[in-house]
Amino acid sequence: MSEKLISVKIDGKDYQLPSGMTILDACKNTGYDVPTLCYLEGIAEEGACGMCVVEVKKARTLQRACVTKITDGMEITTDSPGIHDARQTNLELALAHHPLDCMTCDADGDCELQELAYQFGIKKSEFLVEKEAFEAQKETSWDTNPFIQFDPQKCILCRRCVDSCENQALVEAIGVAMRGSRSVVSTPFNVPLEQTDCQFCGACVQACPVGALVEKPRVGKGKIFNLEKTDTVCAYCGTGCNITLYKDKKNDLVMARGIDDALPNKGRLCVKGRYGYEYVNSKERLTKPLIKENGKFREATWEEAIAYTATKLQEIKDKYGPDAIGVLGSSRCTNEDNFGVQKFARAVIGTNNVDNCARLCHASTIAGLGKALGAAAATNPVDDIKNVDVMFVIGSNMTETHPVIAQFVKENKKKRGAKLIVCDPRKTDLAKVADIYIQHFPGTDVALLNGLMKVMVDKGLVNKEFIEAHTEGYEEFVKVVSKYELDMVSRLTRVDKALIEEAAMVYASALNATIFYTMGITQHSVGTDNVLSIANLALVTGHIGREGNGINPLRGQANVQGSCDMGALPDVYPGYQKVADPAAREKFEKAWGVRLSDKPGLPVTEFGEAALAGHLKAIYSMGENPLMTEPDITHVRKGLEALDFLAVQEIFLSETAELADVVFPSAAAYEKEGTFTNTERRVQLLRPAREMPDDAKLDWEIVSLVATKMGYSMTYRNAAAIMDEIASLTPSYAGIHHWRLEKGGLQWPCPSDDHAGTKILHYGGVFKRPSGKALISPVEYIEAKELPDKDYPILLTTGRILYHYHSGQESRRVKVLDTFVPRNYVEISREDAEALRLEHGETVRDSTRRGSIDVEARISEKPMQGVVFISLHFREASANLLTNAALDPVAKIPEFKVAACRIDKI
Amino acid sequence: MRMNLEDRLNENPELKKQFDELDAYIDEKASQQGSLINVMHRAQEIFGYLPDDVLYYVAKRLNVPRSTVYGVVTFYHFFSRVPKGRHTVSVCLGTACYVRGGSTVYDRVMKTLGIKAGETSQDRRFTLDLVRCVGACGLAPVVVIDKDTYGRMTPDKVVTLLNKYA
Fold first, then answer.
1. What is the Cβ-side half-sphere exposure of residue A606, based on CA atoms within 13 angstroms?
2. What is the pLDDT of residue B166?
3. pLDDT for A137
4. Minimum CA–CA partner of A187 in chain B
5. Domain A363-553 annotated CATH 3.40.228.10
6. Can you tell me the distance from the alpha carbon of A155 to that of A161, in angstroms, rounded to the nearest whole number?
7. ipTM score
8. Domain residue limits, chain A
9. Nearest to B75 among A162, A166, A178 (CB)
10. Are B150 and B124 found together in one domain?
11. pTM given for the model
């Protein structure tokens, strides 16, 4: 849009407006009201309905404001009897085939057609075709899925759903078929929606102005004016989508909508955001504290349970010392909860044995990016994707794990023609649309990345100026990388040499390039090496520290970033201030009024071994479920069973809670006030969308009660008060307070109350390391700890699927999600299936040296030959019975992504 | 799609020839924007109609969403998703033809062939269509069979005419 200003007269008043604007935008910007129906800004701008017509002087006819650009000297009239008549006629045309059944419509009160009819006073359309509106059914049979209901009778063919599918979801699962009065929104060939590429994100439902498209689970659950709405943050992945939740009069959540004008999601949600709230309504929620007696739980009062826990912990502390106790924070809990729990561990128990589930996903990011760049976080916001020319995605199945971010990636490719490079052992949905797809063998990331960088070094594609000015360690790095001849790299990774060369050229020569990575990089015994290699890639090309350039690890859980920022880690206080650093320790000792341990604690992945060895006697867990999420859970169970005492705060009786001595019922994320920090470092405010169960308490509240009972007073008025303490102790959060977040999220570092937050880290190549420069590290390829052999000839890799989430505690209690994907399965290539004589859908036994599970075999084009994939969400066939507990030596993250297995017919 | 087609193509040389012909046309047109309708035209010429798997194939080859292909095939009257007869009979019921007895011609064709507009006779000889004006009003009532136009039709004449087409 050109910035040239032109003169426009609207309703007789003169305005100077930028040329290139539509009349509708001009009217909106100057405060004139023009009705619209088929228009959705940036999504649906087709000018189909004719509600926005205005008069333009000298134009022969009325003009559609949404598609007509303003011109110099244009004189616009926004309302007149003539305009009103035209709009009314167009509205009556839209109403001609619409069944006037608002009484039984779920969209009643939430319907733009109804609202316009009300405004224009239309009781009955002059053009009403009674037979079509009330009787004749249009042919459609595509809404057999559990998520989306389509009533073609109510559809006014505005195309907003089609446009949102095309421009927001970027799936194009629906279109308009037929012609004239038979026109209907349809899937291709009218097949059921689940047979299309539909991801059930529900963008179409949110875009529908009437009740034609409705979320199935909300049908009959109440009309909008009887629901109470709350704006909060989605509790699933780390994207941190802003979401509006609707509560009915029974305190059940019944509907979710994306918030249109909020970053990062701009109205988008995925299937879990749109439908996944239901677990909070579950009858299985814990409502009373439980104490185990003679192997059985009985209900207890809060007083009794708190006293019991405090006494037990005190006994163990007195007898074995504070380091005999381990504490777990959680990436599903708020910053305030995690701050509370690590303070409890450090100031009350006196140990640094505190960790959280980030250990299992991004510990290697913290170690790797922290070492290379001086800050362990995504460098650029989601909204910056639109500035990227080459998107380099490695080890990230983002269409399933971060669906909304994947939508922006696909949008950038489609609208701006940005190039997409995907490196993934599995041919994911994103890989299918990539410009360059590299299918490398699992666990060979370092070899691949070194190969790419060798090409860059050899061809002079590295950014010498950037390396010189902003980095150190390049010389050592070149010595290592130069050994990675492409023939060798190609042999190790099983990737064609030419493809590696092409990817290297495209990434290195891009004007703006950003890397996205996820668990495919981090969950290896060489996870830290992988991350360091990623950092090298960005540093040697200078693709970091400005718009469109950076490294974005995508965070798996809603508050992975935050739980780490809060110091729910064994070696750092909030803000990554090291416990081993006397100055930092002194600061926290002063603030908390106690002596603190200078000894870094154990990571959660070593809790089990320590328990078995008798060093760890008790674990206090806030919402963690290691019995599903850690590798080799048979071994983890032995560790937990060896403990003298296990206390758990939970919303459900999870696998881990079942083993506990005491269980506290806590509030779910949608019932909390507090903050989550999303994958782009955006600290966002959660607001309670429903009442928590009667006798449940907030997580930080429970921890505070135990702490106080143990003789250390932890009394906070509310979560905002905790955030104030966080701000006072954490430089990067110093300017973050709830009252500021009311107006929207803030990206850390935000060092003061008047600081607007930091969009892009390391801006201008300034790194928060002692030298101010980033570190380029020499990284050698080391193969995975357990590779296929004679007995276990197939490589097993694990991960997530779109419709479920982690240990399944939430998503499996969402009826529509669990109906849609009710059981686990193993994805196997056609070649392997044929070799093993397996049929699609047959139950097979997948075994590793640790255990075995029986799952359905699904022949899929995703895995390469010799590799199978199993998701981790299903307790009845838990992938982590199989996984290898080999740890990264630095980050202590387990190797979830590579294990040797065998598949047998049963 | 081609993957699943592969076996069928190997078994059926005739089908393979048809797909090869379509491929050649797509290769020629693929780089052009908006070649979908041309390709569909050609496909209908080759296959006689547009079976769903041919449409899936076209969508994949042209990298066009299936929803778009479906929208186009159902929008244009010209395209057919069901097999057509060897000959297409189009009876015009535009205003001029109508007032000069087009409907009696249409009735007789229906009766003779035993099918309604849009249908194909069991022996696959004829597909019957109704059209609204073919631009030959001076010759009304008009019947078009394949690419030939016949004017001043009467119910009796049309029966004789149909017998000429095998």
1. 20
2. 80
3. 67
4. B67
5. yes
6. 10
7. 0.80
8. 5-94, 104-114+122-281, 290-360+559-756, 363-553, 794-905
9. A178
10. yes
11. 0.92
